Amino acid sequence: METVDAIVVGAGHNGLVAANLLADAGWDVLVLEATDTPGGAVRTAEVTAPGFRNDLCSAFFPMSAASPIMRGLGLENHGLRWRHAPDVLAHVLPDNRCALLSRDVDRTAASVDRFSAGDGDAWQELFAQWQHLRDRLLDALFTPFPPVRPAVRLLRRTGTAEALRLARMLTLPVRRFSEERFSGAGARLLLAGNAAHSDLSVDNAGSAVFGWLLAMLAQDVGFPVPEGGAGELVSALVKRLGDRGSVQCGREVDEVLVAGGRAVGVRCADGDAIRARRAVLADVPAPALYGKLVAPEWLPARLLQDLNGFEWDSATVKVDWALSGPVPWTAHEAAGAGTVHLGCDEDGLAAFGAELGHGRVPRRPFLLLGQMTTADPTRSPEGTEAAWAYTHVPRGSVATPSALSRRAAAIEDSIERQAPGFRDRILARYVQGPAELAAHDPSLVGGAINGGTTAIHQQLFFRPVPSLGRADTPVDRLYLAGASAHPGGAVHGGPGANAARAALARNGIFGGGYATLIKAAHRAVYG
User: Which InterPro entries match (predicted)?
Assistant: First the structure.
């Protein structure tokens, strides 16, 4: 029987981050991936026309640029090069007015000030607050929950009054938060659109902090893209791992082997069993791990009961295009933005979220659109544009090819309204619905591109079920390394790093006492 120190199930970016950190500690690591290529939702392919490199899912990476975990890996030494569009983001209103977010804060302030005098100064103040909190806030975000030491450092930095204001922001809908600070639609839409970009309704309690975080990251580090495609980020992770670990694709894991309450290895779909001396880390959604890869008899009944309430995100419809030229925006400010939000004003965003929440296909879709050649000229031949757009629909609403075709047409209709002549520039298109997205990344169950991490009640210590939100599981030496664990989705490596740290702690610094502590914590939650 093949034996290694650690087995990582899934070669998504979190699995590869975990593998790198374990290899850095001298462990012998084997990464098993069910599909034919590593990367999960971070992949690039020529799916439209020759010479056009389209990102299949993830495309822009502000969290990667800000993440102390990803920065600490030094991926630039392994071929990764970041590129930026001239401007970060444009929100195009239905009447063709446009709010612009640039890495140049003065340029952003000038844009929002055109909607209402004084909003530019207010935006500058909001960004100054971010700069004051940035490093300590990011430390707290990427530390395993609860982040006691980073939280204490953050409190020292802010003082009690400011900390209470931040705590209040955690509870606010983004619409309320932005109305308290800005008079005009421009700044409010930059915040609300980024909350919707995070798949949260503008009227959801708690959506303010996500809109604020993404907007401030955009202002700070931009929305960078890897030169050559999102897949180059994965290539850099694989290159960094090198011969210190092995990545084997086309090897699906059917079962985590457990003996005496401890993970001891895995069994693959081909029947092969592989032993893990120290740990098994699973870069999969929580519902795929508990009760499927791990037999129910090894899990607390309360955990399985809680998982019945696990909420997946809405489904996604995405279209990639090969265009003969740039998108012909009526709002010319959008031409230089890598990311464009369009289709809805603030009330439209509220209606979009409400219709999804009631299981209805929104009448006016909110679109996220990427102009990839604008951000990275290597993505398509000179003078052309590799672009994509996606929107969300209720789960199960695009179960047939005709339904998927109608949703794709609605996406193109929305763009055509803001950019007349857009359809004339389409050389080729590639349409993905929930089934297609899940086919190239099984973690995107039902087209849920954030893996169930954007439901508010599954954030922080409620992720993935009411618990400590940690990578540790009720099975000793088994760790949840996927986006279901804290700190959730986006490409920042947090769940993978936390799982690796927990595995190293269990086998090193804390020894058996660490396992006793974790078991006590799970007993407190599950009885």
Answer: Amino_oxidase, FAD/NAD-bd_sf
Residue 525 has pLDDT above 50, yes or no: no
The residues near 291 (Cβ < 8 Å, ≥ 6 apart) are 299, 304, 307
Give the C-alpha separation, 159 to 30, whole Å. 46
Cβ-contact 5, 277 below 8 angstroms: yes
> Domains (ranges, CATH) in the chain?
2-34+250-310+464-526 (3.50.50.60), 87-225+312-440 (3.90.660)
Best CA proximity match to 450, nearest among 5, 90, 12: 12
**What residues contact residue 475 under an 8 Å CB cut-off, 6+ apart?**
256, 258, 261, 262, 263, 294, 298, 299
Token code pair at residue 237: 């992770």
3-state DSSP helix/strand/coil percent for the chain, to nearest 5?
A: 45, 20, 35
Is the alpha carbon torsion for 464, 467, 468, 473 positive or negative? negative
Q: Using an 8 Å Cβ cutoff, are 114 and 186 in contact?
A: yes
DSSP run (H or E) holding 110:
helix 105-113
- β-strand partners of 396: none
From 19, 58, 33, select the one nearest 490 (Cα to Cα): 58
Which two three-digit tokens encode residue 97?
């007015």
Alpha carbons 464 and 181: distance in angstroms, whole number: 33
pLDDT of 98 > 60? The answer is: yes
For the record, the structure tokens of 515 come out as 């396992």
**Percentage of residues in the chain with pLDDT exceeding 70?**
88
90: pLDDT strictly greater than 80? yes
Extended strands (E) in 378-452: 385-393, 426-432
Distance CA 328, CA 316 (A): 25
Is residue 152 pLDDT above 70, yes or no? no
The answer to whether 488 touches 286, Cβ cutoff 8 Å, is no
β 253-259/262-268 pair status: antiparallel
pLDDT for 309 beyond 80? no
Q: Which residues contact 213 (CB under 8 A, 6 or more apart)?
A: none
Predicted confidence at residue 509, as pLDDT, reads: 46
Cα–Cα distance for residue pair 226/244, rounded to 1 Å: 24
Instruction: Kindly give the pairing relationship between strand 337-342 and strand 87-92.
Output: parallel
Closest listed residue to residue 284, CA positions, set 506, 29, 495: 495
Other CB atoms within a 10 A radius of the CB of residue 86 amount to: 13
Ordered alpha helix ranges (H), 242-327: 286-289, 301-307
Which of 39-53, 192-206, 329-343, 510-524 is the least confident region?
510-524
Q: Specify whether the CB–CB gap between 484 and 469 falls below 8 A.
A: no
**Both structure tokens of 118:** 């004084």
Residue 97: Cβ-neighbour burial (10 angstroms; 0-12, 13-18, 19+): middle
- Give residue-wise pLDDT tens across range 434-458: 999 988 788 888 887 766 555 444 4
For residue 22, pLDDT beyond 60: yes
Structure confidence by residue, pLDDT tens digits, 256-279: 999 999 999 999 999 999 999 999
Contact 278, 511 (CB under 8 A): no
What pLDDT score does 139 carry? 82
